[in-house]
């Protein structure tokens, strides 16, 4: 593989479904061209930033590197340079915003993601984790497609609790999650988004009339400069809750279990107490890195890794690469549940650090805290399949055969 080919891999969705190919490309870029100009066919060009320190530098300088107009890598036909697209972007989740708007909109839900607020959710999430593992136990020794039958359902259950919805809403809300939308044809996705608008605007109206102690009520009744959020702002808040709140936990739980099955010594270290579960959770997050890349655009000339980025040029922040950087993680391609310190960047850094990071950690930790004491054996029951993506993803098919106590 040449350096040029390695750079092109960052804009190839199939590369993210092939760990060996992806990490050969990223290793080569970090070693030989850590800030590399890439001109992939069908995309506007960008600087690929692959070292941990350089990704942190770009994230740290939110005043220089902006999310607008190109927060995510997308084909050129959908993102015109300097515009964000041919149409007005109706929904603008937090990840798409810059300060001061980002700071204002982040504050809308921040109270629900403080350490105290997240800790208060632990008993409910523990119950949901037990329910998920019970679901596995009922399939005792049978083949279980872990992503759709366990991980996605568990992550959705947590979202329902957060939003103040009951199990009867699971089928409806589940249609709006990234996992569900990926399996839809384009016309189905369009219909699902229309249904999303209708459902969450109705939920907002209900919570304004009858507020409760839940996140849906917080969003519905939030005020900015004395006014309630408009429809687009409300829907943008719900979009980021569904996008980040579902995928991060689901793909890390699935990827974490796969890593433990494929590294039985690491599983043993956790089960016999030689490793701490919080450290293992951090390693699972590093290993899976659910979000693959974000884009930033320089508002002024700035040097990154010794390379001058000109005003108006785009950069791609490669989180899987930063999380396997040899200068930060000894033996980075080894899954190590005892790894500490673990300076993984899967949740971003600086002003765009993931608001729900503490909640995601809690979800993952509670799932494995429930699973590991009951797990007698776990084996692959077929070849795992990863999503093709350039933004967010992990396993989409993961057949396992587990034997559990109780």
From TrEMBL:
SUPFAM superfamilies: Cytochrome P450 (SSF48264). Keywords: Heme, Iron, Metal-binding, Monooxygenase, Oxidoreductase. Gene3D superfamilies: Cytochrome P450. PROSITE patterns: CYTOCHROME_P450. Belongs to the cytochrome P450 family. This is Cytochrome P450. The keyword Metal-binding applies. It comes from Streptomyces bluensis. It comes from the Bacteria.
């Amino acid at each position: 593989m040449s350096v040029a080919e390695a750079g092109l891999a960052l804009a190839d969705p199939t590369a993210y479904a092939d760990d060996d190919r992806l990490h050969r490309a990223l290793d080569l870029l970090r070693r030989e061209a850590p800030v590399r100009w890439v001109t992939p066919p069908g995309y506007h060009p960008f600087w690929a930033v692959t070292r941990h320190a350089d990704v942190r530098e770009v994230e740290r300088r939110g005043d220089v590197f902006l999310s607008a107009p190109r927060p995510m890598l997308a084909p050129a036909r959908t993102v015109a340079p300097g515009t964000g697209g041919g149409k007005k972007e109706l929904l603008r989740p937090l990840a798409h915003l810059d300060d001061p708007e980002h700071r204002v909109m982040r504050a809308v839900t921040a109270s629900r993601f403080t350490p105290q607020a997240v800790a208060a959710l632990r008993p409910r999430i523990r119950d949901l984790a037990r329910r998920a593992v019970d679901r596995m136990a009922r399939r005792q020794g049978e083949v279980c497609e872990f992503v759709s039958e366990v991980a996605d359902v568990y992550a959705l259950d947590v979202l329902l609790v957060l939003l103040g919805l009951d199990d009867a809403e699971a089928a409806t809300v589940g249609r709006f999650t990234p996992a569900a939308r990926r399996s839809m044809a384009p016309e189905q996705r369009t219909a699902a988004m229309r249904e999303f608008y209708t459902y969450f605007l109705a939920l907002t109206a209900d919570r304004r009339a009858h507020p409760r102690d839940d996140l849906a009520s917080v969003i519905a009744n939030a005020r900015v400069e004395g006014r309630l959020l408009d429809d687009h702002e409300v829907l943008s808040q719900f979009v980021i809750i569904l996008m980040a709140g579902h995928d991060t936990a689901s793909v890390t739980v699935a990827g974490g279990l796969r890593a433990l099955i494929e590294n039985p010594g690491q599983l043993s270290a956790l089960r016999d107490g030689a490793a701490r579960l919080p450290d293992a959770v951090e390693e699972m997050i590093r290993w899976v890195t659910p979000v693959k890349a974000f884009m930033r655009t320089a508002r002024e000339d700035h040097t990154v890794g010794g390379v001058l980025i000109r005003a108006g040029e785009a950069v791609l922040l490669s989180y899987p690469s930063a999380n396997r950087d040899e200068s930060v993680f000894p033996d980075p391609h080894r899954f190590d549940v005892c790894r500490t310190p673990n300076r993984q960047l899967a949740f971003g850094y600086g002003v765009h650090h993931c608001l729900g990071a503490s909640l995601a950690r809690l979800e993952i930790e509670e799932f494995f805290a429930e699973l590991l004491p009951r797990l007698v054996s776990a084996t692959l029951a077929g070849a795992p399949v990863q999503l093709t993506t350039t933004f967010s993803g992990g396993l989409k098919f993961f057949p396992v055969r587990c034997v559990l106590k109780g």
